[in-house]
Amino acid sequence: MEERMTVDKNAEQASYSQVPLPVPQTGLFPTGQHRDREFICGWGAAFINICITFPINKTIFRQQLHGVSITQALQQLRSDGVQYLYRGLLPPLLQKTSSLSIMFGGYYMSQDFLQVRLPSLSVYVNHTIAAMTAGTLEAVLNPFERVQTLMQTAKYHNRFSNTLDAIKHLRQYGLKEYYRGLSVIILRNGPSNVAFFLGREWLQKHVPKSNTGTEKMLKDFICGAMLGMLISSVFYPLNVIKTQMQCKLGGPFDGIWVTFRRLWRERNGSVRGIFKGVHLNYMRSFLSWGIINASFEFLMETLYNERHQRPGIR
Q1: Which of 73, 146, 235, 308 is most buried by a 10 A CB count?
Q2: What pTM value is reported for the model?
Q3: What percent of the chain has pLDDT over 90?
């Protein structure tokens, strides 16, 4: 009897030894968790989007800069010539691909970091802080937006031969000149990221599931498009202020309030004047963010066989 009990006890201990013990989370991120996929797919989604929507974006830029109608902005681009239509493409291509890579990758990486370091945070707070963090990190790429603005401004067409020439020209004004408009970009990026990611997750949770690949892509497009259209319209005045701040070369660095007051006077104290170009902007954002959201999910599923739908906001 004693021998049998000893054998049973040894067998029980052996079975326990085969069960892996949980690995303590001692690092900055969950063990075995990698976010290179989000960085790569964010980059790819931005590349697809920029190549399609750049001419529309350039038309909106002319409206923001000069306060003109769509017809007048198109006439300006037509008078510039076809050779200038994609002038300034490289800065937004570099900026947007890097920015969306940081936006998606930084968002999910920040979630992982907070989950390890502050596990008591609710999903809502975790995702809000992660989105704000990713948006702030994107502001590091401000020089790309700065050069893009200069390259798209008509009065600088004969001053800079290409993007690299504009970057070199800014060097004589010092490092600070590359980051003109940084304050308004930080003010725009963080809150808009929060609105996008929390809204995206809420829609993913409440919109009916799709069965076919075409239905999934259409759903992702519509969700991204509606969010992009709404968010870009709300934050449109900040983009107008950013354009006004960054179209200058040298001179004093006017803050957000000073720039807004000057713009308000130039547009004759008209809210409609401040929002000049918003119609084309929300059409562009509808298309742009629909493409970005659908492309991101398509790339995640195609390259990594994964639909990116983590636990969202209730």
Answers
A1: 146
A2: 0.77
A3: 45
